[in-house]
């Protein structure tokens, strides 16, 4: 159960799986017996509280940091303070911009048929301009793209298109890992 505040009214239930992967969400604040978590729901950057005293929850810590700079059209991945790589990316077009702010890796989805990417890394954020996309709730993702000419440009529907080496590294980062998208 997710609550509006510690001991407050319930907001809803956080599913145990998201897109067939176990649900992992970042903790953004801790109080005795309660964790405030980032939710994969609209509006973007929504948070809620979960009660932690009854057990049943697993915690994990990741040293990875992922930063996407929209103006520079660049993604950089760190492990602790060590930079693992930095690549040019394609970001949202002016009419469908990539949402800014704090988010996280929600799920890793291998397409059921051959497509332009071997993997979609769904984020816990949604398009601010589209209600749906490709039959889903317009969840923003990191994914590959076959045309390298798109990197360094504002051309997507809000997703971040990354080169193969970046996608391979990002695929090893644990679900729930925070991602910061800045100007």
What does this structure look like?
- The chain is mainly beta and 183 residues long.
- 4% of the residues lie in helices and 42% in strands.
- It has one helix spanning 164-170, and strands spanning 2-3, 10-12, 17-18, 21-22, 27-31, 34-38, 47-51, 64-69, 74-79, 82-88, 91-92, 101-109, 120-126, 139-143, 154-156, 160-161, 178-182.
- The strands form 5 sheets. It has an 8-stranded mixed sheet, covered by helices on one side. A 3-stranded antiparallel sheet has the order 5-6-7, with no helix packed on it.
- Strand 5 (27-31) and strand 6 form a beta hairpin.
- The termini are far apart.
- The mean pLDDT is 96.
- Pfam families: YkuD (PF03734).
- This is Lipoprotein-anchoring transpeptidase ErfK/SrfK.
- Pathway: Cell wall biogenesis; peptidoglycan biosynthesis.
Walk me through the topology.
Elements: E1 2-3, E2 10-12, E3 17-18, E4 21-22, E5 27-31, E6 34-38, E7 47-51, E8 64-69, E9 74-79, E10 82-88, E11 91-92, E12 101-109, E13 120-126, E14 139-143, E15 154-156, E16 160-161, H1 164-170, E17 178-182
Parallel strand pairs: 8-17, 11-15, 14-16
Antiparallel strand pairs: 1-2, 3-4, 5-6, 6-7, 8-9, 9-10, 12-13, 12-17, 13-14
Keywords: Cell shape, Cell wall biogenesis/degradation, Lipoprotein, Peptidoglycan synthesis, Transferase
Domain L,D-TPase catalytic: 64-182
Pfam family, one: YkuD
């Amino acid at each position: 159960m997710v609550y509006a505040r510690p001991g407050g009214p319930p907001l809803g239930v956080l599913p145990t799986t998201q897109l067939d992967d176990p649900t992992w969400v970042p903790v953004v604040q801790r109080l005795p017996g309660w964790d405030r978590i980032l939710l994969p729901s609209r509006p973007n950057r929504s948070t809620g509280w979960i009660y932690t005293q009854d057990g049943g929850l697993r915690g994990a810590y990741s040293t990875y940091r992922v930063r996407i700079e929209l103006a520079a059209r660049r993604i950089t991945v760190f492990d602790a303070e060590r930079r693992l790589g930095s690549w040019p990316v394609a970001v949202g077009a002016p009419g469908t911009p990539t949402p800014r702010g704090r988010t996280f890796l929600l799920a890793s989805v291998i397409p059921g048929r051959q497509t332009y990417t071997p993997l979609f890394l769904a984020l816990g954020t949604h398009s601010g301009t589209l209600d749906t996309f490709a039959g889903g709730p317009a969840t923003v993702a990191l994914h590959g793209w076959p045309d390298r000419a798109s990197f360094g440009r504002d051309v997507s529907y809000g997703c971040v298109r990354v080169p193969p080496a970046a996608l391979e590294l990002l695929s090893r980062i644990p679900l729930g890992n925070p991602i910061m998208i800045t100007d």
